[in-house]
Amino acid sequence: MDPNHIRNFAIIAHIDHGKSTLSDRLLELTGSLTSREMQAQVLDAMDLERERGITIKAHTVRMMYKAEDGQTYQLNLIDTPGHVDFSYEVSRSLASCEGALLVVDASQGVEAQTLANAYLAISHGLEIIPIINKIDLPSADIERTKEMIEKSVGLPASDAIPVSAKTGQNVEQILEAVVHLLPPPKGDPEAPLQALIFDSWFDPYRGVIVLARVVSGTLRKGMKIKVMSNGKVFDIESMGVMTPKPVELTELSAGEVGFFVATIKNVADTKVGDTITDAERPCAEPLPGFEDIKSMVFAGLYTVDSHEHALLRDALEKLRLNDSSFTFEPESSVALGFGFRCGFLGLLHLEIIQERLEREYNLDLITTAPGVRYKITLTDGKVVEVDNPSRWPDPSEIEQIEEPVITAKILTNEEYVGGILKLVEDKRGRQQNFEYVSETRVMLTYELPLNEIVLDFYDRLKSVSRGYASLDYHLAGTWVSPMVKMDILVSGEPVDALSIIVHRDFAYERGKALVSKMRELIPRQMFEVAIQAAIGSKIVARETVTAMRKNVIAKCYGGDISRKRKLLEKQKEGKKRMKRIGKVDIPQEAFLAVLKVG
Ligand code: GTP
Predict the structure, then answer these.
(1) What is the ipTM of this complex?
(2) Ranges for the Tr-type G domain (predicted)?
């Protein structure tokens, strides 16, 4: 197709501002879906995405649109996730677009990720059309939202399009704006092939599927392609676009985006950010790629039933085929047996992987407290990276510890600033900036240790701001901090899977809160159970779970059989997620108690 009739664009927004709903409306308007096929939020394909209402993977859809000028345009829409854990996917999607729709909820206004995503789009040189969504809501304030877009994002908002993705009001104006305001792609279809991989995954029926943007040249069915980073050559077997149903094509030319399937067996051979070229007529240079994605949050995953360990490994291997952003390696714990140390982009990512393992692979899992990766310089000069408390070096051998630090931008209303300042100070934050972005909205910029964020920061932020605060962050560097390892002893025995890394000045308080939470979570046993927190050989806190006097059933009076059954069932249910350590049954929640005491 003539590149002048192509528009590639992404939709960017803060979470829940309506990207997916708007995408659905655009598909409907361009007739990409008949109403029978129209199912709410078709782009959120995975069940889990639909249930949680979040978009996990970026998707791309081709729509054909007959504009008011009588010409037909090919519009390639690339949907992006909104959650901060997945911002690297936003960046990838933007690299394959010339323009973006910046969707802002008219009842909420500009939020932290509106800003972060808008800046990303600006830095990629994209043309941006502001869209003010949810104007059907009584609390919508179009003028105020425009003002915030101008003041805080710095984009002219007089042409912002007010729409309701829910009712469809004004949505057709967006299509006209895409055609007239966004630039067409450049690139010569006759030049040597240069295509950028912006996603790839393993499909059990079709093998490796690659999403690519052809930057110059033409990608053809049957072509021998070369992956530029590793020199490997593959034959293109089939290719096409999603409309959103897959439609097979025989070529994709400069400016177009689409998928292809080649003789690729391993997703690792088609790394996101890599350039694909024609093996017979290669281009001179690869395209600028993406930075490698790094895991930020680490936790141990174990099966409750140790016989299921091999199943967990298989499941992790399968999931990894589609998600190169999480890592895993075998680890073993005295308390929990054989398991895996896994690395994630953030806490939401951890939850999603855990839920998929349980749901799709039917595994009962124990997850240990999430933590971060420390860089430790030893007294002999060696430097080690440690993300597992059980590998923490002996304190006498530690010279210096560096912990990862983030820059966090928090947008909130004036009245919540006090509570938030207290929270970030409690979390060892250091203020960088305090700025009014409108009369009542404040943007706080803080440096914070990532270790403090992975615990309960989101939940606490939500509660002190009653939900009126949004957060965006990126890795900023490291601080040298006096971190210590805190062990938890149950009945006098250290349970390695319960150990955590804390700041020395907070250790005493944390230890006290932790054992007291554990006391609530560990059910009473037939005997007394001591729970202690210790740093080295020094006990910093202690609580006791008193012994059960009689067994539970003995408490119900004889005749009430249904109550009895209920109790037994409840016990059984509880057992499922217990791990017996020594003589004590410890429930899953106890392993995550540290998340609840921040
Ligand atoms: P993520 O994919 O999780 O980033 O969210 P999203 O930005 O795609 O938001 P989504 O489309 O899932 O919409 C979030 C919520 O807002 C849903 O409950 C939608 O029904 C609702 N919503 C979206 N657009 C409108 C609108 O124009 N008006 C009203 N009243 N509600 C809307």
Answers:
(1) 0.97
(2) 4-186
Distance between CA 115 and CA 81 in Å, rounded?
15
Ligand 1 pocket, residue 18 CB under 6 Å: yes
Given a contact cutoff of 8 angstroms between Cβ atoms, the answer to whether 28 and 38 are in contact is yes
275's CB contacts (< 8 A; 6+ apart) are 194, 195, 196, 197, 227, 228, 229, 283, 286, 287, 289
76 is in an annotated binding site: no
Tell how far the Cα of 22 is from the centroid of ligand 1, in angstroms. Answer: 8
| Cβ of 133 below 6 Å from ligand 1 | yes
Integer CA distances (angstroms), 432 to 118, 221, 442, in order: 21, 53, 13
Q: Which of 197, 219, 379 is nearest to 271 (CA)?
A: 197
53 Cα to the center of ligand 1, angstroms: 9
Q: What are the Cα distances from residue 199, in Å, to 152, 208, 290?
A: 31, 11, 11
Q: How far is CA 257 from CA 98, 180, 197, 345, 494, in A?
A: 12, 20, 10, 27, 55
What pTM did the predictor assign?
Answer: 0.72
Q: How far is the CA of 103 from the centre of ligand 1 (A)?
A: 10
Residue 44 alpha carbon to ligand 1 centre in Å? 12
Q: Answer for the pair 450, 404: CB distance below 8 angstroms, yes or no.
A: yes
Nearest to 299 by CA among 329, 334, 321, 337: 329
- 87 pocket-lining for ligand 1 (C-beta < 6 Å): no
15-47: pLDDT as tens digits: 889 998 999 899 889 986 655 555 555 555 555
Cβ(19) – ligand 1 distance below 6 Å: yes
Four-residue CA torsion sign, 91, 92, 98, 102: negative
| Annotated binding residue 380 | no
The rounded radius of gyration (Å) of the Cα atoms in the chain is: 27
Q: What is the pLDDT of residues 245-299, one digit of tens each?
A: 778 899 999 999 999 999 888 877 888 888 999 999 999 888 887 766 778 899 9
Closest CA to 519 of 541, 494, 499, 549: 541
- Tell how far the Cα of 475 is from the centroid of ligand 1, in angstroms: 29
SS (H, E, C) 331-390: EEECCCEEEEEEEECCHHHHHHHHHHHHHHCCCCEEECCCECCEEEEECCCCEEEECCHH
Which pair of tokens denotes residue 7? 């528009």
Whether residue 59 is annotated as binding a ligand: the answer is no
Whether ligand 1 lies within 6 angstroms of the CB of 481 is answered as no
Spatial distance between the Cα atoms of 465 and 362, rounded to a whole number of angstroms: 37
Asked whether residue 133 is marked as a ligand-binding residue, the answer is yes
State the Cα–Cα distance between residues 147 and 40, nearest whole angstrom.
Answer: 31
**Quick check: bond before 184 cis, omega within 30?**
no
| 82 touches ligand 1 (CB under 6 Å) | yes
- Spacing, Cα 358 to ligand 1 middle (Å): 28
Tell me which residue has its CA closest to atom 22 in ligand 1: 18
135 is in an annotated binding site: yes
3-state SS of 388-457 is CHHHCCCHHHEEEEEEEEEEEEEEEEHHHHHHHHHHHHHCCCEEEEEEECCCCEEEEEEEEEHHHHCCCH
Q: Say if ligand 1 is within 6 A of residue 164 CB.
A: yes
Does the CB atom of residue 20 touch ligand 1 within 6 A?
A: yes
